[in-house]
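Notebook p. 47: complex prediction with adenosine-5'-diphosphate.
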Amino acid sequence: MSKAILECRKLRKLYRGEGGNTLALDSFSASFPSTGLVAVTGKSGCGKSTLLCLLSLMEKPTSGKVYFLGKDVSKFKRKEKMRFLREDSAFVFQHYGLFEDKSVLDNVMIPLRMTGEGEKKGRERALFMLDYLHLEDKENQIVSTLSGGEKQRVALARALVKSPKVLFCDEPTGALDEKNGVAVMEMISSMSKTRLVIMVSHNEKLVSKYADRTIVMEDGKIKEDKVNRKVPEAYEDKKLHVFSSRWATLFFKGYLLSDFKRNFLTFLSGSFGSVGILLSIAYMHGNGPALKKESQRSLEYLSAQISKKEVVSTGNSPLSLTRTIKPKLEEAEEYLSLFSSISIEEDLSYFLPNHAQYSLGENQFNDASFLPIFDITLEEYGSSFLREGERIEEETINVCYVNDLYASTHPDIIGKKIELALTIPFEVLTLHEEVNLYYSFEVKGVMEEFSFLNVPKIYYSYPMLKQELRSIALAKLSEAFKREISVYDCIDLGLGGCNAEDYQVYFHDPSEIDKAYSLMEKGGEFTLTSSCYMSYSSLSTLSKAFEVCLWLLFGICLAGVIAITAMSFLSLYFKRRKEIALQFSLGAKNSEVIGLFTLESILVSVLYFALAFIVYPFVAKGFNQLLGMNFGINSALTLPEQLSIFGLSVPFFVIVAVAALVLAILSSALPIGLSLRKGLRTELRDE
Ligand code: ADP
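Predicted complex, structure tokens below:
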């Protein structure tokens, strides 16, 4: 009796299906020696293929045990199972089970590449095997162009090139004509002299001629087990036990080329989505600073008003009223002491009302806002965004700047004179006076201002106003006090008369405005307000609302990119399913199969992110121009250069590259990993 290389005890396989359960194998026990050709025959559906699948470890039995070299295979470690599939056993299918789009040589070399055989030595062995199977001139031919007989010989070459201890053949001659069938059987028979061959066959003639032992099956059980001739024992243990994933590179190249169109479309959709992601990030990062910067593009930016809130309690009533009063100068100075250079001035706008009527040449207008600006501001800050005209010189006070919105309705305004002749009522100490004022400003320049919520403006020199009010004496009051008192003296003495409830504050240093804005946000007993801050805060509220929409876009783009990548690779996986089953039958690991897809997906994802980074600057520039032209907001889309992660500042492109890799790996490997099933090998049987 030969020593048993393969043994099975009480094997049972129950298939559960919708139409009921099928007991494909029922308490099957047999022992197989190390050499000889064992034929398994019986009527269709009696469980022959199921037996082969269980013995070759393609499927697990419902109960019972399989022993290989005396060891229970259900206790095999991962590496032992891999060794069994990659080295010790081989499978020949009825329909060849070859990689049809690969060359004959590539097909035969795959098992050698899997076991880590050197390329040169492997090639020699593969060519020797092809020679032996009379395929010497076919090595470079693509398998799909071969005849059935040739394909089955290639399948045999692939099975035998690794010198397996056990060869499983499922109807190896089933798809061949008689002549080719005999040729293939001759080869299988000669192989069985040095190894165990278990062959499922219907062909009684071939079985009786070549089989050393015949097992006839019926309803999943042994009906007859007949030894036709004794075989000598031959047993050699030689093996490398080096496994390699090098075989996968062949498939990687093939997959990239054969599914180029699909990969290209995934790449295109990924690029669009990625540009969307980058644009959303850019706006969310850039709009805040851009708005702040834009709000500074106005002379008004450097002026503010300070007032004081006073709570007025009404007797015993729980109600209390708040009114705005003018703070004392010392109080205002103390409140604003954190600013290094400011001027606190009387609010004299009563004497040059915001919408006063003025004359320009022959015509009268009241289409502009008159705004007083401190002289230093006009000289230094104003000229920084002068579009036309010239810088105002030191202590020239009868001059003004207009903004571009004003200039758009008054062409060629530079050098012209804006004149105002006003009669303002003035009440002081029950005395009623009329003050006749005359101002004349020469337009020195046009300034480009932040256009959002903007109106036509004329910025004139505050010292000019002050000087004018100083030069006008109040007749009735002067007479009562017996000395000459000017309008400004009267205000300065605190006698009132100009109805102002606040002080005008002029900042000389623009870098201090951030502090001023945070005071404006805070509020409190003293209130610092400026129209510039109001526009800024209303615009940033609007922009924040828009940002929420962009988060949505960001989420949709991200989900879209993940879904497209996942869907594309999952469908590729289903398309290549049969080939994957074949890879598994040759001993491929799950990680190697997933690795193939992950590599492909990483390549596609890296490429689409790279394209997105190339395209992004152009799209962002276009959007920035659009926003600049329509809303006066420039550079709202700016990508961050660095981001802080756990206190470390990391370059933005590094974060994006890592995110792209993680995204690619997860979106391709995860769905494929989840759909890898143990029973995938049944794909090969279903043929
Ligand atoms: P044979 O190879 O002898 O023709 P099989 O081993 O293929 O028979 O099948 C034995 C029985 O098991 C058959 O009745 C078949 O329908 C059933 N069977 C095989 N594979 C499956 C499966 N994956 N699911 C359900 N039933 C199956």
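Notes: The longest strand covers residues 431-447. The chain is about 45% helix and 25% strand.
Next step: compare against the earlier run before touching the bench.
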